[in-house]
Amino acid sequence: METKLTKLKDNVVSISMTIPAAEATSAYNTAASKISQYINVDGFRKGKAPRAVVERHVGVDRIRQEALEILLPKYLGQAVYDNKLDIITQPAITDYKFETGKDVEITFEVETRPEVSLGSYKGIDVKVEVPAADNNAFDKALEGFLAQHASMELVLDRPSNETDTVVFDFEGTCNGEPIQGGAAKGYALDLAHSNFIPGFAEQLVGHNIKDEFDIQVTFPEEYHDEKLKGQPATFAIKINEIKQRILPELTDEFVKKSSRFSTVDELKADIKDYVDNQRENIKKVNAENAVFKSIVESASVEIPQGMINREVESLKADYQQRLSYQGINWEDFVKSQGDEFEKTLAEDAMTRIKNSLIIDKISKEADIKVEQADFQTKIAQMAGAYGVGPQDLLKQFGQNPDFLSSLSQQIVNDKVRDYLLANNNIEYVEVKEKVEA
């Protein structure tokens, strides 16, 4: 087999190859025989019609296409291997000459992975900001545990405060018109953790049961409904109930009923471990991000527009799926985001692609490989997170190529980040305000 490579723009490579006539003829005959098994020809049983009869029945071009599908996996794979091509798209045939008894000449184009030029990725000095130790972290975590098991009691002798849960009826109007979905009866709202419009929950504080009143709010400029974004609204309120959270008494008996521990001391030891591990995890994530950011800034890579376009479409599909779960219409959402949305998607796509290419490049430079044990560890971690057995998880997803490919990439990402932490000089700097991980 003879091949000729021509590099085109945007990392596209054109490959021309010549396939020997004997191989082509054999594939052509196999294709004719295969097609004959699926067609009805008068006077012949399926699969028994001669080649000439099949040619008259379906046409020579149909058989040639089938023959190419037989030939290409072998010859395309050989061409990719011989020329050390790292392809990222399926090949597209651009031209071919296929005459029975002659060598086949075929040309196809394929997109290859962009080459990354790494700067320094080992031995660099990186300062990493981490949150200063919170002396109240343990108390907050313990209080959070107690809050999960708190009981709710009716309040009858005072107005609502900012930590209560209020049960109320409401009807909203905007510019004199009722707000679609802006009314409900017996709605319970935790005033300390409200996800309502800013300013809504605050105006429910200081009222008694059976109070009826109006509150005024303004919808955020980024609100998903075009008719309401940035608009003032009025909500008629009627308070039905006020409830306060009563924390349980922390005793050994309570701990036995509400956790896997037997004593208060055991519970407190576990919470302390959790708080310490959480801080270490924040340090690790901040360090990974800081080191990787430094490496990305020193690396260079030219990303083809076609690659960006495909990633943008993938991002859009992810967006649409998440929004559909929330009952938000995609077209309305896009309109609400304005003209900058497409630009933001393109920038996000470029970031994701660049990060992925750099991780792959480092994994090759550092000879990082995915072993069978890595798969077993990762699957065990995922199974634990889902609350199922590893074999059940494999049974559900193990035959899905996309799942295995994604799992492999996750393992590579983890191993590259661990490698970078171990091979660079990290100085941790405590800051008073918590740094987001």
Question: Could you give a quick summary of the protein structure above?
Answer:
By secondary structure, the chain is an alpha+beta fold.
Helix content estimate: 40-55%
CATH class of the largest domain reads: Mainly Alpha
The rounded distance between the terminal residues' Cα atoms is: 54 Å
User: What sequence of helices (H) and strands (E) makes up the elements?
Assistant: EEHHHEEEHEEEEEHHHHHHHHE
CATH topology of the largest domain: Trigger factor, domain 2
What is the element layout, followed by pairings?
Layout: E1 2-7, E2 12-19, H1 21-36, H2 51-58, H3 60-82, E3 92-97, E4 104-111, E5 125-131, H4 137-148, E6 151-154, E7 165-174, E8 177-190, E9 212-218, E10 232-246, H5 252-258, H6 264-298, H7 305-325, H8 330-337, H9 340-365, H10 372-386, H11 390-397, H12 401-422, E11 425-431
Parallel strand pairs: 5-11
Antiparallel strand pairs: 1-2, 2-4, 3-4, 6-10, 7-8, 7-10, 9-10
Helix pairs in contact: 1-3, 4-6, 6-12, 7-9, 9-12, 10-11
